Every structure is written in structure tokens, then in C-alpha cells.
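Thread: "does anyone have the structure for this chain?"

Original post by V.I.:
We have the sequence but no experimental structure in hand. Need at least a predicted one for the grant figures.
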Amino acid sequence: MHRWLVVVVLPDGAYPDPVPALLFSLALASGGLVLLSLFVAGAVAERVVRPLDRARRMAQAVAAGDRTVRLPARGKDEVATMSAAVNTMADDLTAQIGTLERANEAQRRFVADVAHELRTPTAALLASAEALANPVTRDEAATLVAPQLRRLSRLTEDLLEISRFDAGRAAVVATRVDLADVIADAISDLGEPVSVRYSGPGEVVVETDPARLRVIVRNLVVNALEHGRAPVTIVVEPEPSCVRVLVRDEGRGVPEELRGRVFDRFVRGDEARHGTGAGLGLALARENARLLGVR
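Reply from O.Q.:
Generated one for you, C-alpha cells below.
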């Protein structure tokens, strides 16, 4: 077996040195790779930092009182998910702030209304107390003290009951009772002969809180007697799934401008402003009805 060795000899300079070209290519590729890396890193940083910066500006705007600003939430990536979550949080916060503002406004109105209603009987009592010191006006003043004290007592009881409703401390003690008996008790609570008629079955057994149902019926009857026209009729109509109770009078009805808020607190018509009521009777009737689940 023969072995051969072939040797090729090339003259110097026949072929260029490949190392410099290779180094140049490597340098060019490395530079391009670095530029591409910087571009990608900048894009990623911009995508992450910009939403965070927008969130920071949004938080500053909300803290300054602007509750309308929101973050753009486009796409389905983590940034869009974060933006949507921040927007939801802002919506909830705005709703809670709005609720608190309305509650504070209602509380301010309530305090102002209570102060106004307390001013009338207390002023009358003060005048009566001063008149009692005068022998000439003593007898007349003595007859005015008791009605004003009764008015003040009713107002105090109504305000305490309203406060229990607002605090969520109003309780229901349900039992089986005859609705006709509850209505009779409500009429007797008025303490004087009144022109009230009953129309309905002699016995209608229901399960409810008799004390609260009596308040509802009594306040509706008092409102009908004071602001409607006698006679007042209480109608009981049993139905398959419920019992309907109607309080009717012969008056002109509720004025159009009051129908949307007649059951609000301290609401009274122009004619009722000269009476002894504080505008809480129908409001208490509605609160008790809601508590009992009555429509």
C-alpha cells in the first residue's frame, strides 16, 4: 500500500489575509446587535415606564380633586390589565366619595331642618314662660304650655325613631295578629273622635310587627285628616298573595309638585307649614314599610 503527500506552495501575496475582514464583520455585527438591544430595551422600558408615569399623574390629579381622569387600557397584556384595575379602583373611589358627599349634604340638611323645627316650640315655650310671670297673662299662657310640650315631645320621639332607622338599629318583632285590630288600635292612638271609617273583612290574620304597622296606618290617617278632607276610609282588600291596605280621603290629593318627594323628611306643602306637624309622619311611614317589606 502506497502513501502520497501532496504539497502546494503558493507565492506570498497571492491571497489577502482574512483576519481583518473577519474582525470588521464581527465588529459590525456586534455594533448592530448592541444598537438593536438598546432599541428593544428602550421600547420595553418605554412600555413599562410610561403607564407607570400616567398612573402617577392620575393619582396626583385625583388627589387634587379631578375624579374624571382615567388610564387608557388597550390590549390584553399586563399593562392593560393594570390600567383597567386602576380605572376600576378610581371608579369605586369616585362612587364612594359621591356617596359620602351626598350623605354629608343630607346630614347638613337634616341638622338645619331639626334646628328649624325645634325653634318654633322652644320659642313658644319661652314666650309662655315669660308670660307666666305676668299676672295679667298668666292664665292664657298656662293653656299654651301643654300643647307646645306635646308638640316638642312628638318631634323628639320622631327624631329618635329616624335616628334608629339611620343607624340600622330598628328591629322587627313579628307575630300573627288580626289586621282589623291593628287598624282599630291605630285609630284609638289619635286620642279623640275622628271621622274614620273601616271597610273590609272583620278578621284578617297576618304575620307582621303590629307596633310598626300601627305607626304606618296612624301616620297615613293623620296625614289624610290634616291635609285631606273627611271622611277618611281605611280599606282592606285581601288578595291571594298579600293584603292591600288603602287610606282614602275626600280631599284634592297631593299637589303635583310634591308627589315625587311627599315621603321625604321635613317635606310639607304650603298649607301644612302653618300646622303643628314637622313633616316626618309620611317619612316614618315609609321607613317602617320598608323595614316590614311592605310595598
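V.I.: this helps a lot. The chain has two domains: 47-55+76-170, 175-292.
O.Q.: and The chain has a mean pLDDT of 79.
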